[in-house]
Amino acid sequence: MNMDNIITDKTANDSMESRIRDVAQELFFRQGFAATSTTQIAKEVGCTQALVHYYYRTKENLFRQIFLEQIQAALQVVGESLLSQESFDAFIEQAISLYFDALTRNPQLPFFVLEELVNNPERRRYLRENFVKKPSYVMIYMQFEARLKHEQQAGRIARIEPFDLMMTIASMTVFTFLSLPMYQDLLSRTDSQVKDYILQRKREVIRMVKKILKP
Amino acid sequence: MNMDNIITDKTANDSMESRIRDVAQELFFRQGFAATSTTQIAKEVGCTQALVHYYYRTKENLFRQIFLEQIQAALQVVGESLLSQESFDAFIEQAISLYFDALTRNPQLPFFVLEELVNNPERRRYLRENFVKKPSYVMIYMQFEARLKHEQQAGRIARIEPFDLMMTIASMTVFTFLSLPMYQDLLSRTDSQVKDYILQRKREVIRMVKKILKP
DNA sequence: ATCATATTTAATAACCCTATTAAACAAGGT
DNA sequence: ACCTTGTTTAATAGGGTTATTAAATATGAT
Predict the structure, then answer these.
(1) Which phi-psi region, left, alpha or beta, contains residue B46 (left: φ > 0; alpha: ψ -120 to 50)?
(2) Which of B35, B127, B171 sits opposite A175 (nearest CB)?
(3) pLDDT > 60? residue A2
(4) Burial class of residue B180, CB neighbours in 10 A (0-12, 13-18, 19+)
(5) How close A6 comes to chain B (CA, Å)?
(6) Number of Cβ pairs closer than 8 Å across A and B?
(7) Residues of chain A numbered 51-110 and touching chain B (CB < 8 Å)
(8) Taking CB atoms and an 8 Å limit, are A164 and B204 in contact across chains?
(9) N or C: which end of chain B has fewer CB within 10 A?
(10) What is the band of A13 on the pLDDT scale with cuts at 50, 70, 90?
(11) Residue B47 in contact with residue B16, Cβ under 8 Å?
């Protein structure tokens, strides 16, 4: 592998290594870990299956790399939203909007993460070791908690546990995208109708959360 | 297969056929379709793998049977909750409570249904043909819609689209259980703590939905 | 006791899967 | 031109997978 390569943006790089990574990601997203084979990945890339193993040695390895990157990117969005210095209401609005936009760009992400965490204790352990323990991620939550408590003491918003607020926002955001294939298919919606639906749902979620937060 | 069998309750019946079904359900729930093999099912039942195919011919067949039963049972709960003749607020409270209780008894159900519907267009088509079209299920939704509109015209609750209200309740209920393994594992909670958490979350969801519905 | 019917097993065909190995091929440096 | 290093392929070991088949075993009815 050429480590002198100036281009480090993996998505822009079209080397075999990154093409395998990209195709693998797409297939893991669509089908999950168990239903995706290295043979299928190779076929879709247009190389031999041995090459997939040459670069990543095992399927589990390839998966983990993608998995961590995705989780990291997702947590990044959550972290950034907390940097807002505006009023709490504006911050909540901005945060929800940011989540919706991030997931609109990557609608399969919630399911991908869920699938591999729900029925895989080993991966949850891996996640706990690599992220939840990390001070930076603990800090993000504590910051959110402090800010909420502060607003409550000032009487500007209603009493609600920080964890409950977080879960409520996560629920409504994530579930919108989890149920999207059902929405589209069962109600026979076009892609453009789905886009409108997401925007409309975003507005509605913001409205509802604001109402919940009213003192 | 003995069709004269008086016992029709499948869970109480310990014939090989139903034992296979029960074990298969447990494994499909825990691991999903792709990660579960008929060999594993047979091993857990204590019979040969050929027997699994003798009764159900294909793995897909066995899966579908379980899948339909579960969806049917889930929709049953939704339907029943609408029979309530109490005030709208009481009805909402009762409905959410019912969903939470149903899922507490069967916490893997949301993920099981999701897993197989999200990345399987073929199963979504199957579901649409078998359920969404059925007049009884259309009726359930229309009943809910009519009742909500009626309350709104009377000025007793705030303006909100029936679909949005339904999605909101579904989001918060379903997501609680989807995220349960993460909650338990990442925060190192005991089973009893998890139980308390579910109850607490149920109360909170009811409280929030009521607040959203306030005029 | 016999016979039909239902249940269960052993054996196997015909795959597909992961991972490794050795050999072929490219490209750049000297 | 040659050698080194990195890339890619063909071949294959050693599994596991679904599904079918024929043969063995139970069960119940007559």
Answers:
(1) left
(2) B171
(3) no
(4) buried
(5) 37
(6) 110
(7) none
(8) yes
(9) N
(10) low
(11) yes
Q: Check if CATH label 1.10.10.60 holds for domain B1-57.
A: yes
Residue B159 has pLDDT above 80, yes or no: yes
The token duo for A114 is: 């869920």
Query: Would the Cβ of A59 be found within 7 angstroms of any atom in strand C?
Result: yes
pLDDT band at B136 (very low <50, low <70, confident <90, very high): confident
Q: Tell me the C-alpha to C-alpha distance, in Å, between residue A134 and each of A83, A129, A139, B185.
A: 18, 8, 9, 16
Closest chain B residue to A133, measured at CA: B186
CB of A17 closer than 8 Å to CB of A1: yes
Q: For residue A12, which amino acid is it?
A: A
Is nucleic acid strand C under 7 Å from A28's C-beta? Answer: no
Q: Thinking of the domain B64-213, which architecture would CATH place it in? A: Orthogonal Bundle (1.10)
Q: Is A8 exposed, middle or buried (0-12, 13-18, 19+ CB in 10 A)?
A: exposed
Query: CB of A12 within 8 Å of any CB in chain B?
Result: no
Q: d(Cα B189, Cα A169) in Å, to the nearest integer?
A: 22
Residue pLDDT, tens place only, B88-122: 889 999 999 999 999 999 999 999 998 888 888 88
Does residue A85 have a pLDDT over 80? no
Q: Which residues of A touch B117 (CB under 8 A)?
A: 181-182
The pTM assigned to this predicted structure is: 0.89
Position B158 pLDDT exceeds 80: yes
**Domain limits of chain B?**
1-57, 64-213
Query: Is A212 near chain B, with CB under 8 Å?
Result: yes
